[in-house]
Design goal:
The protein is built from twelve helices and ten strands. By secondary structure, the chain is of the alpha/beta class. It has a single domain, classed as NADP-dependent oxidoreductase domain (TIM Barrel), CATH 3.20.20.100. This is Aldo/keto reductase. InterPro entries: NAD(P)_OxRdtase_dom_sf (IPR036812), NADP_OxRdtase_dom (IPR023210), TAT_signal (IPR006311).
Length: about 300
C-alpha cells in the first residue's frame, strides 16, 4: 500500500486539532446503549465478523520503547473492548507484525483478534520462509487470513496458501492491491482462483471498484476488505472547515470519518473496512461507523452529490 497520512497529521496541517466544532461531536461507541458493531458474514463459511477493523501500515511500525508502544496498546485494548476484531498487517509494514504480536500477547488478547497478514516476496521457498516468520512475529500457530500482497508472484503463492489451508496453518486465503489499475486482474482472480478474501482500495471519491469488482466478489462468494477508505487523507482535506450536512443525522453519522466509512459499509459486498490509526479517539470514531443506520440508495446518492459540491 501507499503511504497513508494519518488523520491527526491531516488535521494538524489543516489547523483543526482544536476545532472540534468543525468536525461535529464524535459518537462514542461506549455511549451507544450497548449497540453491537455491524457484523458481516464471510461468504466461504458464514462466520460473522465486525465490519470495521484496523489497518497497521505506518501506525504500528514503531520501536520498542514505551512512549511509542503505549498508545498502540491502548488502541488494541479499546478495540477489543468495543467489539472490533480484524487487524491487518504485512511484512511490508516494517515492524508492524512484531508490534501487533508483542502487544496483543502482552495484553492476553492475541486470540481474541482476527489476524490477517500477507506474503510479499518472490519465489515459493521465500514465501514459505516469510509466512513462517509472520506467524512467529504475530504470535500465532495458525493465521486467520493470509493474503498475497499486491499480487506479487501471486500464482506461486496461491498454491502454497491452498496447501497451508488444507494443512490447517491458515484459515482463509486471499489477494490484495491498492490501485484502480489492478482491479481488472483482481476481478479475474476473484472469479477463477478459489480465494476467500480480496482486498482493494475503495472510497467515496475513488469508486472504480463499484464498476464491477464489488459485484464480482459478491457473486463469487468472496469476502471484501477495503483499504484506503479515507483516500490517503484526501477526504479530510476536502471537507476542511465544513460542517456535516444536517441530514447526516438520519444515518447516525456524527463525524466526517463516519460519513466516509458508512458510505462504504452501505454496499453489501463490503465485508470489512480497515482504517489505520494509532489514536484511541479515532479508533472509537471509526468503529462508530458500524453502529446505527446505514444510508439507503437515496442516502448514498445524496452523500455523493453533497461531496461533489464541496
Amino acid at each position: 500500500m501507499k503511504c497513508n497520512v494519518s488523520r491527526r497529521e491531516v488535521l494538524k496541517r489543516m489547523g483543526m486539532l482544536g476545532g472540534a466544532a468543525l468536525l461535529q461531536p464524535v459518537m462514542s461507541v461506549a455511549e451507544t446503549s450497548g449497540k453491537m458493531i455491524l457484523q458481516r458474514s464471510i461468504p466461504a463459511t458464514g462466520e460473522k465478523m465486525p465490519a470495521v477493523g484496523l489497518g497497521s501500515w505506518q501506525q504500528f511500525d514503531v520501536g520498542t520503547n514505551a512512549a511509542e508502544r503505549t498508545p498502540l496498546k491502548a488502541v488494541l485494548q479499546e478495540m477489543e473492548k468495543l467489539g472490533g476484531k480484524m487487524i491487518d498487517s504485512s511484512p511490508m509494514y516494517g515492524r508492524s507484525e512484531q508490534v501487533i504480536g508483542d502487544l496483543s500477547t502482552e495484553l492476553k488478547l492475541n486470540d481474541r483478534f482476527f489476524m490477517a497478514t500477507k506474503v510479499w516476496t518472490t519465489g515459493k521457498q521465500e514465501g514459505i520462509t516469510q509466512m513462517n516468520d509472520s506467524l512467529r512475529k504475530m504470535g500465532r500457530k495458525k493465521m486467520d487470513l493470509m493474503q498475497v500482497h499486491n499480487l506479487q508472484d501471486w500464482q506461486t503463492h496461491l498454491k502454497t496458501l491452498k496447501d497451508w489451508k488444507e494443512e490447517g496453518k491458515i484459515r482463509y486465503i486471499g489477494v490484495t492491491h491498492y490501485t484502480d489499475s489492478a482491479h481488472a486482474r483482481l476481478e479475474q482472480i476473484v472469479k477463477t482462483a478459489g480465494i476467500d478474501f480480496v482486498q482493494f482500495n475503495y472510497s467515496i471519491r475513488s469508486r472504480n471498484a463499484e464498476k464491477s469488482l464489488l459485484s464480482a466478489a459478491k457473486d463469487s462468494g468472496v469476502a471484501v476488505i477495503v483499504n484506503e477508505p479515507f483516500d490517503q487523507g484526501a477526504l479530510f482535506r476536502a471537507v476542511k472547515g465544513k460542517q456535516l450536512p444536517d441530514w447526516a443525522k438520519e444515518y447516525d453519522i456524527s463525524s466526517w470519518a463516519q460519513y466516509f466509512l458508512k458510505y462504504l459499509l452501505s454496499n453489501q459486498a463490503v465485508t470489512c473496512i480497515i482504517p489505520g490509526t494509532s489514536d484511541v479517539k479515532h479508533l472509537t470514531d471509526n468503529l462508530g461507523a458500524g453502529l446505527g443506520k446505514l444510508p439507503d440508495e437515496n442516502g448514498r446518492k445524496k452523500m455523493l452529490e453533497w461531496l461533489e459540491r464541496v
